[in-house]
């Protein structure tokens, strides 16, 4: 007799455990067992736990091709979220894994059948009826909605499967409480700012000094932040000076190393950032919101320096161009106002719009159209972990009425949602969605044109690694174009991805300063929010800068068990490790190390 060990892995989702009676049937080519009760003398199938059971098979039973699950329908027995089942033969020393990642419901006469590794294109799945029924049920749970005017496709409601796990939620709340406690004592002593040193002090004695604390006035650091800061995707090669940017050769002569503007453009040494998208965005009445342009010049050293800032789009006497030749605090104020505008763009567009909200629609459409057994679902699913939960529950504390964005930012919740909607309308899969294309379109793809742009260098290498990984998975399961054409799930998936948002789709397109008087430190302090707002901003930005999931490739939930696919995953991890080592080696000698696209710093999913 062959001793068989059966292990059930109950998920960690809210309500995942069950006290129901569960039966399993082992099915071979020509034999199958009777229903085997999975029950010990203590509570089994509890949330986040592994339960083990033993049975025996007669000689000659054959290789197990399927398992079949059923459960009782007692009213007091809750649904059960099962991650996977392992069936191990002690005689053959062979273990089979049956990925499930499903709720096992108490519907009358409901039978669930799974094959080892559970990966099938829909037309080849031996359990087509079960697959179709599951997708029909998921389409009722995963529904798109537009939650603010011209906004992206989002989840209408949070499906039960998407809630935070108990462990993650506790850790997130604990981290937030710890950060708040670190600044709580300062709030008891808050008063007016007396000097910029006061601002430095509250960091030093609470959350720690930011890396740029000692360089915020430095022009080289300002230039570096356009390449390595939170919003490095907006700098462009300046091919011509916009008509509304009132810079002249006389104004810039001290800052272009002897070149004229035309010569600097010819030599590809001038760069521009243009935040015109901020025009017309709502701001709190007492605040200033600029839609600035900034001009940067690459010196012979290879580093870029700011040479001109115009704080609003329409030139004129009340909208001068500021340069490093202005009095120090006047120039500093121009950089401060510019940086605040870029921060509004980063948080609204790059972070919330293009990351959280854009991918929320992709997540919903994927769940609606691709079975959990689909190889492309297994490829994508690890990167959706907690996305809908953080967007639905977590972001309420961030952008809900009267919350952090309303209380601390220039544009409030109203302006942020306007800016997100505006940016989403401009987003293109072919341009922003393909990293090298985005670099090329902005004229910054060549290293000779813009040295020390590690965001580009590391991003392109990481993009190529991900591209190879995805391509390998695709070609593993689709050998011909006909295979793609026959895959009705992937066809419906693409159709909903590009369908208008008002029709329930994701709506993706292209798939394949007014004063020139010298300022003082006191003037700068008047632009800084009060200490309570600064402290609240410190806490939330620190929290949003943390990583909530494992690093890229180290998946929290294992969906892929098919041996050839597992080999592709291992190659992906090896490539990521090699890139990480390369980046770390470069950073040992770099004047300004860049770590943000080191695979060990890139999280698997959008969970914060």
Structure description:
GO terms for molecular function: metal ion binding; oxidoreductase activity, acting on single donors with incorporation of molecular oxygen, incorporation of two atoms of oxygen. One of its GO terms (biological process) is lipid oxidation. The structure is a single chain. The chain is 40% helix and 14% strand. The protein is an alpha+beta fold and 608 residues long. It has a domain at 2-116: Lipoxygenase-1. The strands form four sheets. It has a five-stranded antiparallel β-sheet with strand order 11-12-13-14-15. Strands 4-1-6-7 form a four-stranded antiparallel β-sheet, with no helix packed on it. It has a four-stranded antiparallel β-sheet with strand order 3-2-5-8, with no helix packed on it.
Largest sheet: 5 strands, antiparallel
CATH superfamily of the domain at 2-116: PLAT/LH2 domain
What value does the Rg take, in angstroms? Answer: 28 Å
Task: Write down the overall mean pLDDT.
Answer: 88
Report the total helices: 19
Percent of sequence in beta strands: 5-15%
Overall geometry = elongated
User: Helicity range of the residues?
Assistant: 25-40%
Class computed from helices, strands and strand pairing: alpha+beta
């Amino acid at each position: 007799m062959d001793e068989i060990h059966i292990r059930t892995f109950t998920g960690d989702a809210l309500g995942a455990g069950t006290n129901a009676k569960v039966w399993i049937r082992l099915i071979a080519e020509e034999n199958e067992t009777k229903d085997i009760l999975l029950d010990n003398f203590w509570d089994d199938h509890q949330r986040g736990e592994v339960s083990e059971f033993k049975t025996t098979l007669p000689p000659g039973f054959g290789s197990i091709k399927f398992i079949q699950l059923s459960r009782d329908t007692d009213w007091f027995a809750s649904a059960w979220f099962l991650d996977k089942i392992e069936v191990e033969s002690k005689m053959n020393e062979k273990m089979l894994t049956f990925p499930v990642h499903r709720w096992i419901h108490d519907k009358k006469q409901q039978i669930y059948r799974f094959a080892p590794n559970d990966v099938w294109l829909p037309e080849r799945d031996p359990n087509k009826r079960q697959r179709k029924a599951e997708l029909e049920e998921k389409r009722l749970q995963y529904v798109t909605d537009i939650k603010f005017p011209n906004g992206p496709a989002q989840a209408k409601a949070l499906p039960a499967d998407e809630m935070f796990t108990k462990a993650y939620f506790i850790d997130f709340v604990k981290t937030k409480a710890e950060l708040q406690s670190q600044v709580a004592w300062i709030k008891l002593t808050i008063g007016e700012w007396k000097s910029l040193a006061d601002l430095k002090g509250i960091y030093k004695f609470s959350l720690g000094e930011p890396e740029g604390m000692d360089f915020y006035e430095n022009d080289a650091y300002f230039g570096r932040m356009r390449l390595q800061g939170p919003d490095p995707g907006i700098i462009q090669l300046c091919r011509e000076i916009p008509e509304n940017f009132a810079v002249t050769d006389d104004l810039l002569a001290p800052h272009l190393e002897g070149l004229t503007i035309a010569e600097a453009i010819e030599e590809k040494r001038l760069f521009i950032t243009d935040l015109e998208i901020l025009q017309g965005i709502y701001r709190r009445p007492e605040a200033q919101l600029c839609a600035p342009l900034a001009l940067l010049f690459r010196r012979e050293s290879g580093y870029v320096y700011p040479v001109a800032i115009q704080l609003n789009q329409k030139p004129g006497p009340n909208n001068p161009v500021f340069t490093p030749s202005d009095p120090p605090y006047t120039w500093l104020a121009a950089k401060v106002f510019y940086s605040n505008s870029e921060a509004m763009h980063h948080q609204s567009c790059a972070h919330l719009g293009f990351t959280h909200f854009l991918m929320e629609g992709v997540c919903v459409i994927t769940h609606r159209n691709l079975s959990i057994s689909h190889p492309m679902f297994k490829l994508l699913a690890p990167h959706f972990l907690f996305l809908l939960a953080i967007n639905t529950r977590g972001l309420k504390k961030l952008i809900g009425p009267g919350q952090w964005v309303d209380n601390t930012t220039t544009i409030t919740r109203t302006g942020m949602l306007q800016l997100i909607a505006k940016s989403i309308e401009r987003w293109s899969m072919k341009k922003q969605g393909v990293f090298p294309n985005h670099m090329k379109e902005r004229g910054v793809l060549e290293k000779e044109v813009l040295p020390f742009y590690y965001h580009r260098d590391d991003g392109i290498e990481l993009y190529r690694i991900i591209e190879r990984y995805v391509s390998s998975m695709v070609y593993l399961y689709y050998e011909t174009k006909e295979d793609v054409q026959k895959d009705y799930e992937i066809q419906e998936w693409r159709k909903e991805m590009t369908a208008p948002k008002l029709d329930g789709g994701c709506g993706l397109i292209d798939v394949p300063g007014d004063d020139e008087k010298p300022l003082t430190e006191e003037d700068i302090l008047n632009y800084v929010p009060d200490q309570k707002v600064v402290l609240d901003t410190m806490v939330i930005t620190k929290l949003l800068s943390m990583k909530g999931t494992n690093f890229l490739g180290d998946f929290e939930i294992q969906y892929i068990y098919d041996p050839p696919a597992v080999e592709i995953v291992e190659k992906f991890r090896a490539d990521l490790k090699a890139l990480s080592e390369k980046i770390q080696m470069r950073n040992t000698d770099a004047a300004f190390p860049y770590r943000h696209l080191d695979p060990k710093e890139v999280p698997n999913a959008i969970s914060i």
